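Issue: ligand-bound run for flavin-adenine dinucleotide - logging full I/O for the record.

Environment: standard queue, default settings, no custom constraints.

Inputs:
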Amino acid sequence: MNRPALRRIVVVGGGLAGHTAATTLRAEGYDGDLVLLTDEPCPPYDRPPLSKELLAGTVDDTALRISDDIEVRTGSSALRLLPDAVETTTGTEPYDGLVIATGSSPVRLADPSPRVHELRTASDALRLREALRTASSVAVVGAGWIGNEVATRAAALNLKVTVIDAASAPLARALPAALARHLIPWYADLDIDLRLDTPVDRVDERGVHLASGGHVDADLVVMGVGARPATAWLRGSGVPPALDGAIEADATLRAGRGRVFAAGDIVRWPSRLFGDRLRVEHWEHAAASGQAAARNLLGLAEPYDPVPYFWSEQLGHRIQYVGHHRPADTFVLRGNPAGAAPWAALWFEGPRLRAALSIDDPRTARDARHLIADQVPLSTDRATDPNVRLNQTANLKS
Ligand SMILES: Cc1cc2nc3c(=O)[nH]c(=O)nc-3n(C[C@H](O)[C@H](O)[C@H](O)COP(=O)(O)OP(=O)(O)OC[C@H]3O[C@@H](n4cnc5c(N)ncnc54)[C@H](O)[C@@H]3O)c2cc1C
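Outputs:
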């Protein structure tokens, strides 16, 4: 490897991507100055448990381990990117290598207040956990991944739970409605009142005001209507955000001239495996892209081309998603969504598996991941048979 001479690397963003980038730089032998900036009041921590174990009270702290040879600046917000320095609320940080990993900010329908909540940070989660202790009813706006996890917890506490979404099926941003409609009975199973096709006009201390003129009264409102890349601070820099706020990178996650790389929720990169530019908001990608950005900053020039993977605990079920599907891909069911047994959905482009969603079926998710990575052609007929293990459905004639 032809290692560039780097003396001061700055990582902007103290989430998993920034944390992994910084720890990888040290693990790879980088011994110059290394500063990690985060606008949060605490060092990096893990987010998936915030809506699961931390909300349930089985853990109080999700801090990630970080070594003393990484200078962590908490409460330091990046304001402007210059060609050789980052201007922040606490000063100017010169760099000759940079990793941008500022993640996502939740979309707000109202400012958080004692009765209106969002869930992105550890302090959001602790505040919501406390509020759930004394509430008797909760309205969740958005039947997305995080909204559903909050609804699951509130239902476990025997609260009256209403989930409201403008779409005609849950998880509308992630899954086709024809597939996601199979999840609708899960809400009734937990006594959750799911209101689909119900646009919200506004949210306030009195509850949720519907576009139809109706009103859902609740002790607490939780906004779960998605997140946007936190990249406004990069406007006017040499790394301008795209229209949707994402940072466009090349196959090595290089995001600008010189030694500027991006990782985590904010980055979009070209995937050779999927023939598409991808951006995903997943834990595993945050870690893997943080590692790749750090290694490439040190001169490795390795293409980043993983099979994306995501898991969630939704309404008493374990959902796993691997790969990447496009609207034009054919999707088929494996197993019976109306039955109690595990089932899955598979997306194909011709005989090639592009993505799989598995419900309580980790083995199919695991098999799918290998088959997608190795681009093994499958017999689509056999792949839909839940009695045949997915990795035994290769079509050897193709
Ligand atoms: C409640 C919750 C549950 C989740 N559950 C799952 C799950 O079950 N499975 C899964 O795969 N994924 C899950 N995710 C998604 C996963 O956690 C994210 O994809 C991952 O955290 C992204 O990491 P990141 O480092 O890119 O961004 P982030 O984690 O958002 O970190 C970015 C950091 O940068 C800081 N920052 C932002 N702007 C600035 C600035 N201008 N200056 C300085 N610092 C700044 C932010 O405050 C933050 O600390 C969940 C996310 C949440 C919020």
